[in-house]
Amino acid sequence: MLKLPEKDLVFLVKENYDLIAVAFFSVAITYVLSKTWRRASGVDHGEGIPGSLGLPFVGETFSFLSATNSTRGCYDFVRLRRSWYGKWFRTRIFGKIHVFVPSTEGARKIFSSDFADFNKGYVKSMADAVGQKSLLCVPQESHKRIRRLLSDPFSMPSLSKFVSKFDQMLSQRLKKVAEVGKSFMVLDFSMKMTFDAMCNMLLSISDESLLRGIEKDCTAVSDAMLSFPVMIPGTRYYKGLKARQRLMETFGGIIAKRRNGTEHQDDFLQSMLQRDSYPSSEKLDDAEIMDNLLTLIIAGQTTTAAAMMWSVKFLDENKEAQDNLREEQLVIGKNKGEGYSLALEDLNGMSFGLKVVKETLRMSNVLLWFPRVALNDCTIDGFEIKKGWHVNIDATCIHYDPELYKDPLQFNPSRFEEMQKPYSFIAFGSGPRTCLGMNMAKVTMLVFLHRLSSGYMWTVDDMDSSLEKKAHIPRLRSGCPITLKAFS
Ligand code: HEM
Predict the structure, then answer these.
(1) How far apart are CA 196 and CA 82, in angstroms?
(2) Known binding site for heme: residues?
(3) pLDDT value, residue 15
(4) For ligand 1, is residue 135 a contact (CB within 6 Å)?
(5) Short-list 140, 111, 125, 143, CA closest to 394
(6) Residue nearest to atom 20 of ligand 1 (CA)
(7) Of the four listed, 48, 142, 370, 404, which is most buried by Cβ atoms within 10 Å?
(8) Closest residue by CA, ligand 1 atom 2
């Protein structure tokens, strides 16, 4: 070690006094600021939950983005931290502290006091893209009213017409791709199928070029929902907002035609407009109708289409389940007779089919977790949560918990013969924000499974199981190409 005589040391200090003073104050200020910031953000109080918050604001954002940009998918970020810290961990993404809630008890606590102690965080880009009056963005009082007024067309009995229309549309399209005999992507097929069926049910649109135009704009809006909100040409946000303007014009045009009597249809929109003369608490205004039309299309298309794709993949890997499904569905078909069309009541006989739907949703976790913000300090499973922290109900962790599901990585629809513990199956969420399209999604999938398994055998033409990059809904990168062979 360097040893200086005392007089040299005094000389050195005198000569560099300014430098030493600046260095000393910098260290002190950094220490005080970091302490104040840690206290303000609640970091020092959450010692109970392990995890790394990294640097202020940045936190672990780059690791999260890197997982999202990889073919392992964004849940890999969560999986990795669980392996480091255990079931409960916290992190910081884009300046916010996130806790991933892994238990049924945690899910119960959050779902059952949604809006009171927890709420969806306000995301500007989402509200701008999908609309301020969307169910996804409105405050509690409007949410309750809008949801009540939107619900009826999505109740099981109201879906009878949808079932027979969807069945017809699907049968024709499957027949066509089977006749061509070439490999096709299930994902592209199911995206188009669900989109066209939903636009038909909501707005009675069947014109092909109009449908493709609306679909393109809805995709742009969906891409803008989680983008950086700056109105600069070329950005996802800009493109999404422009697409929204076009969609609002299209929807507005259709509403005007219905009102002036040029057009009348038996569909969702007509049922909303029939309430025009009702008191304001019993009807939706035009902005509410249009924002929620857009919300329903966006919330319904990608989720249902991804689930349809995963069912094909899982059934291909589990021939026993596929055989059981086919057996059940062939009996239903035989009982109906030649050239039959499915009716809503026929779906009641699809008990194994329904288990395939649930098992597909359990394993695919189309929505990986459900984000909320804590409105007050609270404890969940004994862990202290601070007001303002983001608590994500981790559906994936719950669905893969070996204490709730034996051999959770095994696709086994029969497991649903047993009663499920409360909050152990939450693919459609729970509480006041339970999926509005849950019944529609179930009947869509049942009809799809029926027509596919009773009419065709299929081979998956690309076994690669890597995931699409930059996607928030897990989907196969390959799009799941298959070739169909009709039963003669
Ligand atoms: C397999 C398909 C589907 C899955 C897995 C699914 C899942 C979910 C989940 C988990 C939620 C609640 C999210 C949360 O609590 O934060 C939700 C909400 C919602 N879903 Fe679905 N969904 C599907 C299909 C559909 C369809 C077909 C529609 C419309 C026709 C739809 C419309 C909605 C709407 C509007 C909400 C918001 C409800 C509210 O905030 O009150 N979903 N969905």
Answers:
(1) 40
(2) 435
(3) 58
(4) yes
(5) 111
(6) 435
(7) 370
(8) 304
Question: Does the Cβ of 460 fall within 6 Å of ligand 1?
Answer: no
Mean pLDDT of the chain: 92
Cα 13 from Cα 418, distance rounded (Å): 78
For ligand 1, say whether the CB of 296 is within 6 Å of any of its atoms. yes
> Residue 481 corresponds to which tokens in the numbers above?
């190409």
CA distance 131 to 138: 9
For the chain, what's the residue count?
488
> How many Å apart are CA 251 and CA 292, to the nearest integer?
11
pLDDT score, position 39: 45
Question: Ligand 1 pocket, 366 CB below 6 A?
Answer: yes
Q: Ligand 1: distance of its center to the CA of 27 in Å?
A: 50
Digit-coded pLDDT (tens) for 207-237: 999 999 999 999 999 999 999 999 999 999 9
Distance 303 CA to ligand 1 centre (A): 8
Position in ligand 1 atom list of the atom nearest CA 295: 35
Host H or E run for residue 227: none
- What is the SS3 assignment for 99? strand
Q: Does the pLDDT at position 20 exceed 60?
A: no
User: Is residue 435 within 6 Å of ligand 1 at its C-beta?
Assistant: yes
Cβ-based neighbours of 236, under 8 Å, separated by 6 or more: 220, 223, 224, 227
Closest CA to 196 of 210, 186, 217, 180: 210
Q: How far is CA 174 from the centre of its chain?
A: 27
Which residues belong to the annotated binding site? 435
- Cα angle 140, 142, 146 (rounded to 5 degrees) comes to 120
Given a cut of 80, whether residue 37 has pLDDT beyond it is: no
**What letters, b where the CB count within 10 A reaches 16 and e where it falls short, cover 141-159?**
eebebbbebbeebbeeebb
Alpha carbon distance 347, 368 (integer Å): 28
Say if CB 406 and CB 125 are below 8 A apart: no
| Closest ligand 1 atom, residue 194 Cα | 27
Whose tokens are 């069947």? That residue is: 206
Closest CA to 381 of 104, 113, 117: 104
Locate the DSSP E strands across 155-268. Answer: 184-185
For the CA of 296, the closest atom of ligand 1 is 29
